[in-house]
Amino acid sequence: MSTEDHKQMGAPSEEKLVWEGSPKWQADFGFIVLSSLIACAGLSLMILAMKFWFIGLGLILVGAVMIVAVRLKRRHQRYKITNLILEFQEGVFSTHIDNMELWRINDIGYHQNLFDKILGVSKIRMATQDKSHPEFDLVGLPPGRQIYDEMKEGVHIARQARNVLGMTE
Q1: Which is deepest, 98, 135, 150, 165, by most CB within 10 Å?
Q2: What is the distance in angstroms between the CA of the first residue and the CA of the last residue of the chain?
């Protein structure tokens, strides 16, 4: 949709960047700990039961591959949030970029449990009208409600501009 289309529908004429970046590594802290424990179990097996060294080596490799895979995935995941659209990019070997206009978001919520607060990350969960992403989570965001509040305001303004307030699918 062009800027002209947005102007005609009463939407904000200028796109304003809310946040852009990749999820923080702390969002995967639990998975990284689990992967490390698997690798440590493999190392322990290699040391304590020498005749099962191949199983221990296999566990070390599995743990290492899990860590590398999750880090590669997150490193090649990118969010761009503006007052008009949400753009998300992912892919290690091939890149896929998708976007969603904010008026398609039906419900938006901010989540940060105690563990997230300690690690300094947050999550925004959305229920949308988008067929390819009916539910979508933005994970590994910086702590604080600023991104959530600006997105919520953008959703409200975009839905008003499209005259879709109160509509459900």
Answers
A1: 150
A2: 21
pLDDT tens for 94-109 read 999 999 999 999 999 9
Tokens of 74: 């997150």
- Dihedral (C-alpha) 45, 50, 51, 54: value to the nearest 10 degrees? 60
Classify 21 in phi/psi space as left (phi over 0), alpha (psi -120 to 50) or beta.
left
> What DSSP string runs through 18-54?
EEEEPPPGGGGHHHHHHHHHHHHHHHHHHHH-GGGHH
Nearest to 82 by CA among 5, 3, 16: 16
Residues 6 or more apart in contact with residue 62 via CB below 8 angstroms: 38, 39, 42
Q: Which two tokens stand for residue 164?
A: 């879709």
Prediction pTM value: 0.81
Q: By three-state DSSP, how is residue 91 classified?
A: coil
Q: How far from the centroid of its chain's Cα atoms is residue 92's Cα?
A: 15
What's the rounded Cα separation, in Å, for the pair 157 and 169?
19
- Length of the chain equals 169
